[in-house]
Amino acid sequence: MLDISQAYRLLNHGPTVLVTTAHRNQRNIMAAAWNMPLDFDPPKIAIVIDKKTYTRELIEASGSFAINVPCRAQAEMVVRVGASSGRELLGKEADNKFAVFDLPTFAASKIAAPLVTGCVAWLECKLIAEPHIQDTYDLFLAEVVAAHADERVFSDGRWHFEGPNGESYDELRTIHHVAGGNFMAIGEAFKA
Fold first, then answer.
1. Among residues 85, 142, 115, which one has the least CA distance to residue 22?
2. DSSP code, position 87
3. Lesser CB count within 10 Å: N end or C end of the chain?
């Protein structure tokens, strides 16, 4: 588990994320590109979730969600998840995106939403109810209650995509949606 004081750094570079939710026996996952850290102590995030999404329905019902930060190796899965509707699967044999896309998950430590295996960071979030901005701007605020990261690429409070022995973790670089299913992977880190 990551020190909660470092949670904002997991989103500070603007990655595309996967939002997972769960309420009772329903689960869903969606891709989202409009998200950002909002505060440090306690850590908070902001994310845009459209009114029409099944994910939003489950977030409002459960009061929690997870932010999963996918990597370059998962880009095709991110596109598939983002181009499908969880609501359209209800009542079908495979009634959720996790089953349809065979997405392995593991349990979060403080919320019900599943965490997606293979991502490079995970934020467990509790909704801060702000009905006016949710309804008017589709903007959701949440407090981060737990944060986790793949130590190969995030440790000591910073992202790094080269290992201690010079090995490259290019497939673990975070991705950034730039429109029309096109992405860029985060580039080389440098200090000014």
1. 115
2. H
3. C
Q: Which domains are assigned to the chain? A: 4-185 (2.30.110.10)
**Alpha carbon 85 to its chain's center:** 17
Distance CA 162, CA 169 (A): 6
Are 47 and 55 spatial neighbours (Cβ–Cβ below 8 Å)?
A: no
Q: How sure is the predictor about 144, in pLDDT bands with cuts at 50, 70 and 90? A: very high
Q: Among 7, 5, 10, which Cα is nearest to 153's?
A: 10
CA dihedral 42, 48, 54, 58 (to 10 degrees): 20
Say if residues 21 and 28 touch (Cβ distance below 8 Å).
yes
Dig out the tokens for 83 from the structure: 């181009």
- Residue 152 neighbours by CB distance under 10 Å: 15
Paired with 177 in beta bridges are 183
pTM of the model: 0.89
